[in-house]
Backbone:
C-alpha cells in the first residue's frame, strides 16, 4: 500500500485519476481522503502544519501498518533548476527549526536527488541551492511515526525558479506537471512496495493458540511475554507447534515445559539450513 | 556492491582520504552532514531494508579511538585493544551482533586513521617493553571494504614500524591483493573466521566459500604472512560434529601449521538486547529459536555449549600445537 500526501487538489487530481481512487465517504472536508485497493491519498492544504495533520489523519482514518510506503508529492521552487524537473529528497531541512531528515535511498531510484528546504512562506530569493517548498518537513516528521524511514519519501516537481516566478503557476500547469511524472511516481511506488515485500514482518503468535494454552491459569505480564517468545521459537521448528503434554497446572511449570520442548526440538532438528 | 549515496561529514570533506574515496565513487549522490550520528543513529530505520542497499558514511572518529578488548578476546597477551576504522560489514551473517547493535546498516568509514594510529602508539607506550595486541574487525570485517577504505595501505606500513604492536586483522574476505602488495611484517596476523561450509551457506550471506578463503590463506602464507584461524562462533546443528570435523580437516590439510600464529574458537555469545533486535529482524530464523534467553547474554544451553567446546578442543588438538591454541574463555 502506498500513501500519498499532497498539498493541492490540482496535485491530487492526476494521482486520483491514475490510480482510480474513490473518495473515502466519512473523511470529512478538512482533509479529503481518496483510496483504491493499493493506494490512499490525502489533500492536506498548503504548509507543513497541515501536511503533518493530514498525514496523521490519513494514518488514523485508514490504519496503516509499518510496511506502507508514504510519498509526499508537490510542486516546488529552485533558483535555476528547469521547470518540470522531478527530484527526490535526500535531505529535508525545516528552515524555521533547522531540523534535518535524511530519507534513506534504497537502491538506484532513477531520479535526481537533492536537498529540500521547507519554508513557511513562498520563496523567491532561493538563497541556498535547495529545492524550496512548504510541506515536506511536516510530512516526514509525522510519517516517521507510522513507517520506517526508508519508506518515507518526498518527490518535488520544479514549478518556479528565478526566471519564472510563482505568478505563472496555474491549476492547469500544476496538473500537467504531475501528469508528466506519473510514470516516475509509479516507479518509485513500485520500488518501495517491492522493498516492503522484503521487509521484516514481525510474525505474531496465533492468538487462539496462546488463549488455549493460557486457559484458566493466571499469567503475569512477563509470563505472557515469555509465552509469546516460546511459541515463536516453537513455530520456527514447527508452524503448528504441538504443545500437548505441557498441561501443567501453574503458568511457571507450563513455561518450563515449553522451554524444555524447544530445547528438545532444537537438539533434534537444528541443522545448517 | 554499488554505493548509491555517500553521506559526508563537513569536517572530513577536505580530508585526503575522503577525496580518494570519493574519486572512486563518482556516480554516487553526495549528501553533506554534520555528524554521522544524525544519519546512522536515527530511530525509525530498518536494518534489514538498508542491508539490501547500504549507503556509505564518511566521518571522523572523535573519541574511543582505541578501546580495551572484551575479556576473552585475547590470544596470549595481557594487553589487548581493539579499534574500528569501519562500522558495519558487506557480509550479512545471520548471527552477527552488529545487526542488533546498530540501527543502520550503512557503512561508516572513519577516515582519520592518523589519529587512530596516534592512539595506538600511546597504548603501546603505556606498556613499556611488552607486546600490545590490537584487533581490527570487531565492528566490521577488516578487509572486505578495503577497496574503499584503503585500510591495508595505511596500517600495514604503520605496524611494520612498531614491532611491539601486534596487529590482528580479522576477516572473512578473500580479497587479499592489497596485503600481497606489502612486505609482510612479523607483527601482523591475518586471522580468518570460519564456520562449516553448510553453516556458511545457511547463515553467512555474501561470504566467499571456505575453499576460496583457504586458498587465500595459502597465498598469504606463501608470501610470508602469519595467519590466525578463528572458529568463531561455534554454531550448533544436530550433526555439528561431522561438519566441524570436515571443516578442520579441509583447513589443516591445506594450511601449513608452522605459518599459524594462533588458533582460537569462540562459542556463540550475544548481549540479550542485541539478540532481541536480531530476532525481531528475522523471526523465522531457526538459529535463534534454539537459543534460550536467560541472563544478560544469550548463548546455547550450557550442556550443548560444553559438549561443542569439548568436541572442538579435542579435534583441534589433533592439528594444532598447544602453544598456538587459544580457546575463548569468555
Residues:
Amino acid at each position: 500500500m502506498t500513501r500519498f500526501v499532497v498539498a493541492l487538489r490540482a496535485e491530487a487530481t492526476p494521482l486520483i485519476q491514475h490510480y482510480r481512487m474513490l473518495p473515502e465517504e466519512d473523511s470529512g472536508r478538512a482533509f479529503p481522503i481518496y483510496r483504491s485497493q493499493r493506494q490512499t491519498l490525502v489533500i492536506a492544504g498548503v504548509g507543513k502544519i497541515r501536511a503533518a495533520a493530514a498525514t496523521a489523519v490519513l494514518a488514523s482514518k485508514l490504519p496503516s501498518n509499518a510496511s506502507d510506503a508514504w510519498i509526499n508529492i508537490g510542486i516546488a521552487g529552485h533558483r535555476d533548476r528547469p521547470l518540470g524537473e522531478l527530484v527526490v529528497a535526500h535531505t529535508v531541512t525545516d528552515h524555521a527549526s533547522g531540523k534535518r531528515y535524511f530519507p534513506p535511498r534504497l537502491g538506484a531510484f532513477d531520479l535526481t536527488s537533492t536537498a529540500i528546504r521547507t519554508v513557511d512562506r513562498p520563496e523567491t530569493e532561493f538563497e541556498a541551492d535547495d529545492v524550496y517548498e512548504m510541506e515536506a518537513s511536516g510530512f516526514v516528521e509525522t510519517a516517521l511515526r507510522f513507517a520506517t524511514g526508508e519508506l518515507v519519501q518526498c518527490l518535488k516537481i520544479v514549478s518556479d525558479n528565478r526566471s519564472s516566478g510563482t505568478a505563472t503557476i496555474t491549476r492547469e500547469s500544476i496538473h500537467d506537471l504531475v501528469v508528466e511524472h506519473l510514470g516516475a511516481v509509479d516507479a518509485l511506488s513500485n520500488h518501495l512496495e517491492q522493498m516492503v515485500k522484503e521487509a521484516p514482518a514481525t510474525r505474531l503468535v496465533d492468538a487462539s493458540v496462546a488463549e488455549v494454552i493460557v486457559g484458566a491459569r493466571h499469567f503475569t505480564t512477563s509470563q505472557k511475554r515469555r509465552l509469546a517468545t516460546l511459541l515463536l521459537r516453537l513455530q520456527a521448528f514447527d508452524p503448528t507447534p504441538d504443545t500437548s503434554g505441557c498441561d501443567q497446572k501453574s503458568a511457571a511449570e507450563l513455561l518450563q515445559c515449553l522451554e524444555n520442548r524447544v530445547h528438545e526440538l532444537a537438539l533434534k532438528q537444528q541443522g545448517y539450513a | 556492491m554499488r554505493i548509491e549515496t555517500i553521506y559526508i561529514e563537513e569536517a572530513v570533506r577536505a580530508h585526503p582520504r575522503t577525496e580518494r574515496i570519493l574519486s572512486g565513487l563518482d556516480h554516487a549522490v553526495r549528501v553533506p552532514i554534520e555528524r554521522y550520528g544524525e544519519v546512522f543513529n536515527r530511530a525509525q530505520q530498518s536494518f534489514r531494508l538498508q542491508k539490501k542497499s547500504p549507503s556509505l558514511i564518511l566521518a571522523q572518529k572523535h573519541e574511543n579511538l582505541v578501546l580495551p578488548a572484551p575479556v576473552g578476546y585475547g590470544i596470549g597477551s595481557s594487553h589487548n585493544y581493539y579499534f574500528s576504522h569501519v562500522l558495519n560489514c558487506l557480509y550479512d551473517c545471520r548471527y552477527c551482533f552488529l545487526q542488533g547493535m546498530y540501527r543502520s546498516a550503512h557503512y561508516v568509514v572513519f577516515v582519520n586513521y592518523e589519529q587512530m594510529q596516534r592512539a595506538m602508539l600511546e597504548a603501546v607506550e603505556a606498556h613499556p617493553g611488552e607486546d600490545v595486541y590490537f584487533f581490527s574487525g570487531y565492528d566490521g570485517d577488516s578487509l572486505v571494504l578495503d577497496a574503499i577504505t584503503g585500510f591495508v595501505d595505511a596500517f600495514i606500513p604503520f605496524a611494520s614500524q612498531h614491532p611491539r604492536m601486534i596487529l590482528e586483522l580479522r576477516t572473512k574476505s578473500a580479497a587479499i591483493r592489497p596485503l600481497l602488495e606489502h612486505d609482510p611484517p612479523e607483527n601482523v596476523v591475518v586471522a580468518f573466521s570460519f564456520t562449516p561450509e553448510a553453516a556458511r551457506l545457511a547463515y553467512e550471506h555474501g561470504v566467499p566459500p571456505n575453499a576460496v578463503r583457504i586458498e587465500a590463506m595459502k597465498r598469504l602464507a606463501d608470501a610470508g604472512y602469519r595467519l590466525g584461524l578463528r572458529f568463531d562462533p561455534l554454531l550448533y546443528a544436530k550433526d555439528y560434529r561431522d561438519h566441524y570435523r570436515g571443516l578442520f580437516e579441509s583447513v589443516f590439510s591445506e594450511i601449513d601449521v608452522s605459518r599459524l600464529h594462533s588458533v582460537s574458537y569462540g562459542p556463540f555469545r550475544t548481549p540479550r538486547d542485541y539478540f532481541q533486535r536480531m530476532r525481531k529482524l528475522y523471526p523465522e530464523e531457526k538459529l535463534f529459536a534454539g537459543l534460550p534467553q536467560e541472563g544478560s547474554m544469550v548463548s546455547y544451553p550450557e550442556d550443548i555449549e560444553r559438549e561443542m567446546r569439548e568436541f572442538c578442543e579435542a579435534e583441534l588438538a589433533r592439528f594444532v600445537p598447544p602453544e598456538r591454541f587459544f580457546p575463548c574463555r569468555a
